[in-house]
Specification:
Layout lengths: L8 E2 L9 H9 L9 E7 L4 E7 L8 E6 L2
Parallel strand pairs: 1-4
Antiparallel strand pairs: 2-3, 3-4
């Protein structure tokens, strides 16, 4: 059994494009309603990763789940 939830994906920096404001919108705003997302982070220092989850307080969508590699 894998230690990672299959709903999480590894972060790819190629999906961020545009100027600084555009990248902030991609990271911080809900893709459905445009509200600010609420983030939670769970660090796993033995495997050098951080699991990030984001949920929209307005529409309730929990569509963003990423794994960040700590290096």
């Amino acid at each position: 059994m894998s230690q990672f939830d299959e709903n999480y994906k590894f972060e790819k920096f190629e999906e961020y494009y545009g100027d600084v404001n555009q990248v902030k919108r991609i990271i911080d705003e809900c893709k459905i309603c445009g509200s600010q997302l609420v983030f939670t982070h769970l660090a796993d220092y033995s495997n050098m990763i951080v699991q990030e989850s984001a949920r929209c307080p307005e529409c309730g969508d929990g569509h963003k789940k990423l794994i960040h590699v700590i290096n």
